[in-house]
Each structure stands twice: as structure tokens, then as C-alpha cells.
Amino acid sequence: MAPAKRPVWDPPRGLTPDSPVAEAPAERSLVERDRARVWHPFTQMGLERDPVPVASASGAVLTLEDGREIIDAVSSWWTSLHGHGEPALVEAMANQARTLDHVMFAGTTHRGAVELAERLCELAPGPLTRAFYSDNGSTAVEVALKMALQAHQRRGHPERRVFVALEGSYHGDTFGAMAVGDPDPFFMPFKSFLFDVERIPADAAALEETLERLGDRAAGVIIEPLVQGAAGMWMHGADFVRAARRATSERGLYLVADEVMTGFGRTGELFACARAGVEPDLLCLAKGLTGGVTPMSVTLATEELFELFYSNERAHAFFHGHSFTAHPIGCAVALASLDLVIERDVPAVLDSIGSEIEHALRDRLAPDKAAGLRRTGGIVAFDLSDPSADGYLADRTLVLRRLAIDSGVLLRPLGSVVYAMPPACLTHEQLQRVVDAMVMLSES
């Protein structure tokens, strides 16, 4: 007997096969079709309202299917560095696709990967001489953790296997990245599967005490330098970043800098580590690496680390890789994006945008409605005083997101934290609308 055919579509909850939608699936809206088939990230599908249907994007503006326009004030999850549809990046992508779309990176190489590695190592803070490509921020962190742990083994110290991370940290969704992140609220179902990590506040004394207690078991320290994104845009000073470098150097440990968010100008410098005057052993980059156009990441490492894996024994190799490692199109776009970052002085542009937003908010936020206004570079945040909005999982957060979108601005509050991280193309008029929306959320 032939197997029964699956229906062309499954009716969304609340609809029946006899409904007009079911009879004419071609007439369903994009949102209805989405609801029937798509599973969105970081989304409780049973609670959140319909997703916002985006038809196109240009600069800092997203155009919806119904023709409305909203300002992308969070750079589409902190990725869109120059703005959407940047012509130089689109051209680089198209040109590369016509020449070399993809080739496996095990046993081959190509010009874009080599040139990008050279440029990144030249621009990055410190003696970072090797580039290992992967697909996204989480995998860039995963690579760094595996390199550090295996390097200790190669040095004859397999007992060094405990990392120190910051409270509230978030480094990605793969298992190693989850382990060094704070399990609450994202990863509690997997807590028993994660390796041991010591978590501390961004405090030099706490770091020293923890490393002393761990002794020979310590493997390294991983931080989001200057700004902890998903924690609620928590900001710490350069002094702590320098203390972390000093403490790890004195003990022969690795300092891993997760600059997936803070890299490429977000903090007012090309890299947050450079702003702090620190040279990490491993530097994780993604998001702004390609200006937000294509998925790609890289982990930069020191020559000393690389040499620990360099051997005539195959078993000593670093066994990690992805099908799209060093994707030629991604490399071409990243190179074009780097050109724009330097030519337009994007770090200074973002710093200026952030400063203008901060000053406007300082004049307009009511003390009884908002507190803790803070800024690092182009990242501006404050805390809502309304206790009902507290906590990342608070239902109030969903309401705030929709209010912002209805006002024409894409904001994505982190629990009680309202923040903006716009692209470098934001105009003065658009900036004022972003400020208006942030103030409106504080008063809602």
C-alpha cells in the first residue's frame, strides 16, 4: 500500500480544513504561512504575536510587506554594521559568486581567505597571527575553547580544564559556548551536560581569588570585553579587562576575548580589547565581520598556540571544521566591509551616534521611569524602573517590543533593559525617532 500523502500545508492553530484559508492556501498571508511551518529562534511561539513580515531593507530602514517602514535600531541582532543593502558589499558578494562560490577549505585555499586572514591579523590587537574560520559567533567561541583546552594537553597539563567566565555572560548556543555562558535563563535544560565553569562579577579581586583557588585546574578566562550584550548591556571598565590580561599572563593561562558583538567599531574603537589596551590570546569575531550580510566568523590565535598543534603526527592536529569554513563569498564581503570600516572611520561614526542618543535620552528620561543610563561607543542602554518588566522572560518584554514596532522602530528590550545599537548609516532624523521610541517605552 502506498504511503498516505502529507497535506500541502497544516492549518495553523484555530483553523480547520473547511476554512477559506485551507481551501485556498495560495491566498494565505506570509505570516499565516510562517505560522504553519517556521520555528523562530528565542521565541515562545505560543505567546508572541505574529512575526513582523519584512519585504526589503535599505540603510537603517526595514520595509514591511504592507509598505510600512521601521528603523532597525538594533542592527538586526547587532550584525548590520553599515546598514542594509550597502552597495559595496552587495557588489563584492555578486562578483565573488560569479568567480568562486564555494570550495572546501580542507586541503585547498583561495585568495579571499588568505587576504582576510592577513588583514585581520594586521588590525587585531596584539600578536595574533593565525585565523581559523567558522560559521557564526557561537562556533568561533567553540573553536577558541577547544584550542585552549587542547593546547594545555599538548603542554602536558591536562588538569587545566576549568574556565572562568563572567556572571550573566552569553557566548552562544553550542555546548561549549553554553557552558561558559550563564545557564539562567537560556540553558537550564542542558545544565547537567555542561562542563564546570567558575563565574565571577567583573571585578579584579574576585578574579584573583578565583584563579588562586582553582590553582592548576584553571585553563583560562573568557570575557565579553567592555560590554556584556545578552546580560542586559552590562558595561565594565577597561581596568577589569587589563586585570584579566594581567592575571592570566602571570599564570600561563589563556585570555579569550569574545568580540562577536563588540568588534569592528561598536565600542568606539575597532576592537574593544584595543580600547582597553589589551592583547588577548584568542579573539572571536563574527556579526560585523561581514557587515551583517553573510554568516561568517573567525577565531584569531597567537603563533605560540598554533605551534602547539604543528607536528608530524596527525593526531596532534586541531580537528575542527565546517562545510562552509572560509566561504569565499563571506571572505569577499568581509574584505569589502573592512575597507568601509577604515575609509569611513566607522568606530568614530558609531561613537558619535551613541553620544548623540545618550545626550538626548539624558535630557528626556524621567528619573522615576528609567535609571542606569549608560553608553560604550555606539551602544546605549538604560533600565526601566517598572518592576513588571524585570527579567528576560517577563511578559512585559513582548509588549514593549510590539509598542516599539508600532511606533516605527525595531527595538528588542532585554527584560527591563532598553537599548539601541544602530548601524553607522543612521541619519539625524532617524536617530531622533529612535530616541522618541526609547523614551516612549520608558513611559509605557
Question: Any overview of this molecule?
Answer:
This protein has 444 residues and is α/β, with parallel strands linked by helices. It has 3 domains: 1-38, no CATH class; 44-72 and 346-443, Aspartate Aminotransferase, domain 1 (Alpha-Beta Complex); 87-343, Type I PLP-dependent aspartate aminotransferase-like (Major domain) (Aspartate Aminotransferase, domain 2, 3-Layer(aba) Sandwich). Helices cover 37% and strands 16% of the residues. It has 15 helices and 16 strands. The strands form 4 sheets. Strands 4-12-11-10-7-5-6 form a 7-stranded mixed beta sheet, with helices on both faces. Strands 1-2-3-15 form a 4-stranded mixed beta sheet. Strand 13 and strand 14 (379-384) form a beta hairpin. The protein is globular and about 60 Å long. The relative contact order is 0.14. Residues 1-17 have low confidence and may be disordered.
Brief summary of the model shown:
This protein has about 450 residues and is α/β, with parallel strands linked by helices.
